[in-house]
């Protein structure tokens, strides 16, 4: 019995059918936990009698037609599959290209990538590179200790007595408001000439060192002048180091007084506002100056703490947090009568940037009330430090208390928790202007091996929140040679523009004694550092033999990534972070043993994000890893199974026999493009003298000009790259002769055919098609190339459309859809994929062809079947396009083809933007699933400066788990150059209202970092053909969906929607701003880390008598009043000169 045509609001007989597979349609997907906001996903296994009526349901307004039956739509799907396969067999030339490779078998060899040997060789090369830097570090540290020991302290030293190059002098003299202008006229500041050096990406002078002194430190103080005096002798050691190793980059001595002396000399990068760079807050310095820390910060929020004092405390806590690195653990609590954590963190957490950001935001919410209860605060802190059931540093333990004063010494608490061993140091900070007796605070610090500080005003915060490091350095200094161990940092962005670097650090100790028989000095003089560019390490890794999807990576003992193709150098990163993700296909990275420095190998099945971040592929990857000896790093190699072997061309004999030196040289000349197709060559470093260019035509011109001067076997050229390029030029040219040249592309509505190879050749035919070719000329960086290697069959790629841009313009038939597939060779039992071939479909012509193939006609010239009132017909995608929607959607959920003419300009858009109701139904019925991830390296438009004082890192450096998680698989072989651990101290942002990038030396506005949430869709568990109902009450829609075999396409036929009620629930695919995953939840599942293997937190000979002092400088009352008024008003104060009169620095 025929069912009447439905109309909006009309009733339906019987219960609404639920989406389910038709009988005999294969396995059904299991239940899913994904539940979109629009409602629960429907199971496909519910059987309802009314579903049997589906084939008979009539189209609205077309009583002579019924919805096509399942076997009809399956027939259409087979026709589509056959059409695509036929075109690819004729024009793709996969089989012909295989034969061409075999015909030229004498021109190349098949080489094998042996993962274990490869990774061990690279690890050894990196170890040798770093060892040369270690030797230079040791020479510098020994020399510095000897120079300082021989130095005679001068009380009456004057600025004009010291001759040095002030790296900031030029910038200060250019600023007419600078207080240093007048002083510079009498200071003996050198004026230097500089030369451009590409290795440093900067202008340098190799004859001198440069000095940088923080803006808030008075350059004319006695301490600073004496420091400049004795460190001048380091200049000759720097120069000698470079003579022995010309590859050395920045050599730096960071002094505990704040002075930075570095070589070679170069002008400091002048910021727009105040330069707040302080070497003592750089993580490389912190790491080298003390062992890891477990710190609990407790803040007095009793009623007496209010107004300016509370503001000073909040800022002080933020500054204190900035002195911690990723090796440290911390928690922050407030107390009055009771103590409670200021944030959601209930125990010590790693002091990474995202955790510190949570603390800093929480601290701003502290409110003063109640009475002071030191006992509650200290008991809470000791309990935190005694909790052994959590991950922590397990080295230096300390409590930092900020208060406005009090009388209770809480001796009973110290007796209970800390005496007699005194394993926890106590540092007390008296904050604000008051008349309280500070003796109890001094006693607490002195009785617990700590130090007492005063912070009367905003100008004292930076100095007094970082000098506790001097105390922590005492056991290290007293340990002597045992503590003189080189440590290597995580990757970060160099402040002088070198890019991504790692730094080797070595502490420098004070070896002086106050007199004969006196105790050994306990002070650390500073930290010596030598930078190693990530590019220098990268050059030691194999480049192109690993294929497009193979690469090398390295991690440190925290699991943070040191080396990875996705690591991007971006400055002004204010919101970086890291997350605890599980490794795909296994449990935690601890089981790999990679963080622990073990060797290993593992094959995993994982999800990989495409280069354009639109698609997800499930792939198999082989991981092999080894430790890099004498470092904190481990090195890993990732290889797809198809990259086990690679081609290596050997054309030496042929080249010598040809007078012109090039057997296929003429095919690279533009004059041959008209007949042979346009050739794009990958912009690789084929030869040292080859001028790079982003314009491929210009690069090709430069390449040809250079090849006319040298032979491919020249020592200045990379023979592997050059020979493979020549080989692939000839291989693809033969494909033109055998297949493309004699075919009529218009007959099959093709705009172009193309081939791309591992050797770096992309050939597009005919030549005119190259005008609209937008793919990357480097195949390893082209999304279609890499996806084709990872997928069997034909990969469709519609043109990318941004929803914010205009729809596609179908003018001159230039808009096309790429269809590509990998060429797999089997040579002597060895399988590899050296090339990808494909076609570019004419979008408009194939949309018309799609209608015919999904219709009741067998070919385009056949007349359409006519149905009268007495005869019933099934609808098809051509005749009934007003009632029936037919589309092809790719595996990412993007529209590829449609039978609706008005949707042609929406090809390439996420299908939810075209038909939200239908896309949601496909997702709910498990045709698609989705993956959400976070991009911590995203760059966004500059944001207005906020209120929080922070020390944002310069580059987000992810963990290895982040990379293994989907969000990081965006660039495997392209070394596009970024955690939380590439530090950019933007200290005192609250006080000066300054952007950290500007404080660090950024001379121009840059995009700021942000976290972006990414969502990608990919095919779910349904592989069979299904009919289903979209249940919208009285406005339900029928639809049929079926995967097309050997493609990445889904064929969908559906009734067109009639009622607006069905337009509910829109799936989103585009990136959105995010704060990242909930940090409070992540800390409950901390990632595994090994932590440093050395700890210097105790020495029996330590002298703890030096345990308290006041502010670092005694400013006038007027200065104090003005600073406090500025703070209260929220205005940026002008830094005042400080006499850094740390008594223990006077030697």
UniProtKB/TrEMBL annotation:
One of its GO terms (molecular function) is voltage-gated calcium channel activity. Residues 14-30 have a biased composition (Pro residues). GO terms for cellular component: voltage-gated calcium channel complex. Keywords: Calcium, Calcium channel, Calcium transport, Disulfide bond, Glycoprotein, Ion channel, Ion transport, Membrane, Metal-binding, Signal, Transmembrane, Transmembrane helix, Transport, Voltage-gated channel. It comes from the Eukaryota. InterPro entries: Ca_channel_alpha-2/delta, VDCC_a2/dsu, VWA_N, VWF_A, vWFA_dom_sf. Residues 294-472 form the VWFA domain. Residues 31-41 have a biased composition (Low complexity). It is found in: Membrane. The keyword Zinc-finger does not apply. SUPFAM superfamilies: vWA-like. This is Calcium voltage-gated channel auxiliary subunit alpha2delta 2. Residues 1-41 are annotated as: Disordered. Belongs to the calcium channel subunit alpha-2/delta family. Coiled coil: none annotated. The gene is CACNA2D2. It is a single-pass type I membrane protein.
């Amino acid at each position: 019995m025929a069912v009447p045509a439905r109309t909006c609001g009309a009733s339906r007989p019987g219960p609404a059918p639920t989406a389910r597979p038709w009988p005999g349609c294969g396995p059904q997907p299991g239940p899913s936990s994904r539940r979109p906001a629009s409602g629960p996903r429907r199971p496909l296994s519910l059987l309802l009698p009314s579903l049997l009526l589906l084939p008979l349901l009539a189209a609205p307004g077309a009583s002579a037609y019924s919805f096509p039956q399942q076997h009809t739509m399956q027939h259409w799907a087979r026709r589509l599959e056959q059409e695509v396969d036929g075109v690819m067999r004729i024009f793709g030339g996969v089989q012909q290209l295989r034969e061409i490779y075999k015909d030229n078998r004498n021109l190349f060899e098949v080489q094998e990538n042996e993962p274990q040997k490869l990774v061990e060789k690279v690890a050894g090369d990196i170890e040798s590179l770093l060892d040369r830097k270690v030797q230079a570090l040791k020479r510098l540290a020994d020399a510095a200790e000897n120079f300082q020991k021989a130095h005679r302290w001068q009380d009456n030293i004057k600025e004009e007595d010291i001759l040095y190059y002030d790296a900031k002098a030029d910038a200060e003299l250019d600023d007419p408001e600078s207080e240093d202008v007048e002083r510079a006229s009498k200071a003996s500041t050198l004026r230097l000439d500089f030369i451009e050096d590409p290795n440093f990406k900067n202008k340098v002078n190799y004859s001198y060192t440069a000095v940088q002194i923080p803006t808030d430190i008075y350059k004319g103080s006695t301490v600073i002048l004496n420091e400049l005096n004795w460190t001048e002798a380091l200049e000759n050691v720097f120069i000698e180091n470079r003579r022995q190793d010309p590859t050395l980059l920045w050599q730096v001595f960071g002094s505990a007084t704040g002075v930075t002396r570095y070589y070679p000399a170069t002008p400091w990068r002048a910021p727009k506002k105040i330069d707040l760079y302080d070497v003592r807050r750089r993580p490389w310095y912190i790491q080298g100056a003390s062992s890891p820390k477990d710190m609990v910060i407790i803040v007095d929020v009793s009623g007496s703490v209010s107004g300016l004092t509370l503001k000073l405390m909040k800022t002080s806590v933020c500054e204190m947090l900035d002195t911690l690195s990723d090796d440290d653990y911390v928690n922050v609590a407030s107390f009055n009568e009771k103590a409670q954590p200021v944030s959601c963190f209930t125990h010590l957490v790693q002091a990474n940037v995202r955790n510190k950001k949570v603390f800093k935001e929480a601290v701003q919410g502290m409110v003063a009330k109640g009475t002071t209860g030191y006992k509650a605060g200290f008991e809470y802190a000791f309990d935190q430090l005694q909790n052994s059931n959590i991950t922590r540093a397990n080295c230096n333990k300390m409590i930092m208390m900020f208060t406005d004063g009090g009388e209770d010494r809480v001796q009973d608490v110290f007796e209970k928790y800390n005496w007699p061993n005194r394993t926890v140091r106590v540092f007390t900070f008296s904050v604000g202007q008051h008349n309280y007796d500070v003796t109890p605070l001094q006693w607490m610090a002195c009785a617990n091996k700590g130090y007492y500080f005063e912070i009367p005003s905003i100008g004292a915060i930076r100095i007094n929140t970082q000098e506790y490091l001097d105390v922590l350095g005492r056991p290290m200094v007293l340990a002597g040679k045992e503590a003189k161990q080189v440590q290597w940092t995580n990757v970060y962005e160099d402040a002088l523009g070198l890019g991504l670097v790692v730094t080797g650090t070595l502490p420098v100790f004070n070896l002086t004694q106050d007199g004969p028989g006196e105790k050994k000095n306990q002070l650390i003089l500073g930290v010596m550092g030598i930078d190693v560019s990530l590019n220098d390490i990268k050059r030691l890794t194999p480049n192109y033999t690993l294929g497009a999807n193979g690469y090398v990576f390295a991690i440190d003992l925290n699991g943070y990534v040191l080396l990875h193709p996705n690591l991007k150098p971006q400055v002004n990163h204010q919101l970086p972070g890291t997350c605890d993700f599980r490794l795909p296909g296994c449990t935690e990275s601890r089981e790999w043993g990679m963080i622990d420095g073990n060797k290993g190998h593992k094959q995993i099945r994982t999800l990989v994000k495409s280069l354009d971040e639109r698609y997800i592929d499930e792939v198999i990857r082989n991981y092999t890893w080894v430790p890099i000896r004498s470092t904190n790093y481990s090195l890993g190699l990732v290889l797809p199974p198809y990259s086990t072997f690679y081609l290596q061309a050997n054309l030496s004999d042929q080249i010598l026999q040809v007078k012109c030196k090039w057997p296929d040289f003429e095919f690279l000349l533009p004059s041959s493009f008209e007949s042979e197709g346009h050739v794009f060559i990958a912009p690789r470093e084929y030869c040292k003298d080859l001028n790079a260019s982003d314009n491929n035509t210009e690069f090709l011109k430069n390449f040809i000009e250079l090849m006319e001067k040298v032979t491919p076997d020249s020592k200045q050229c990379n023979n592997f790259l050059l020979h493979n390029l020549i080989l692939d030029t000839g291989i693809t040219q033969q494909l033109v002769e055998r297949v493309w040249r004699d075919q009529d592309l218009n007959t099959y509505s093709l705009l172009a055919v193309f081939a791309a190879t591992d050797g770096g050749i992309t050939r597009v035919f005919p030549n005119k098609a190259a005008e609209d070719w937008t793919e990357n000329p480097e195949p390893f960086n082209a999304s279609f190339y890499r996806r084709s290697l990872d997928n069997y069959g034909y990969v469709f790629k519609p043109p990318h459309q941004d929803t914010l841009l205009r729809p596609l313009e179908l003018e001159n038939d230039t808009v096309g859809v790429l269809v590509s597939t990998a060429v797999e060779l089997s040579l002597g039992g060895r399988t590899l994929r050296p090339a990808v071939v494909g076609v570019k479909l004419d979008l408009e012509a194939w949309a018309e062809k799609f209608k015919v193939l999904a219709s009741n006609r067998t070919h385009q010239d056949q007349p359409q079947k006519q149905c009268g009132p007495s005869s019933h017909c099934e609808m098809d995608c051509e005749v009934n396009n007003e009632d029936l929607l037919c589309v092809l959607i790719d595996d990412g959920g993007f529209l590829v083809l449609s039978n609706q003419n008005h949707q042609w300009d929406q090809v390439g858009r996420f299908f939810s933007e075209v038909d939200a109701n239908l896309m949601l139904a496909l997702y709910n019925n498990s045709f698609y699933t989705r993956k959400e991830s976070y991009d911590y390296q995203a760059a966004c438009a500059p944001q207005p400066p906020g209120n929080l004082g922070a020390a944002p890192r310069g580059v987000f450096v992810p963990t290895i788990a982040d990379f293994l998680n989907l969000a990081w698989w965006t660039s495997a072989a392209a070394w596009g150059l970024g955690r939380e651990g590439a530090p950019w101290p933007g200290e005192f942002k609250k006080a000066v209202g300054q952007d950290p990038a500007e404080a660090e030396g950024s001379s121009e506005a840059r995009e700021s970092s942000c976290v972006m949430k990414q969502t990608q869709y990919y095919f779910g568990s349904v592989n069979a053909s299904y009919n289903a109902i979209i249940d919208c009450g009285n406005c339900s829609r029928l639809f049929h969906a079926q995967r097309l075999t050997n493609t990445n396409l889904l064929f969908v036929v559906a009734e067109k929607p009639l009622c607006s009620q069905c337009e509910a629930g829109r799936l989103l695919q585009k990136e959105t701003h995010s704060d990242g995953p909930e940090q409070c939840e992540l800390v409950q599942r901390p990632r595994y880390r090994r932590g440093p293997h050395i700890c210097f937190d105790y020495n029996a000979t330590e002298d703890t008598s030096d345990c308290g002092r006041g502010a670092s400088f005694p400013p006038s009352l007027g200065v104090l009043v003005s600073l406090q008024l500025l703070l209260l008003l929220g205005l940026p104060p002008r830094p005042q000169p400080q006499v850094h009169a740390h008594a223990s620095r006077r030697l």
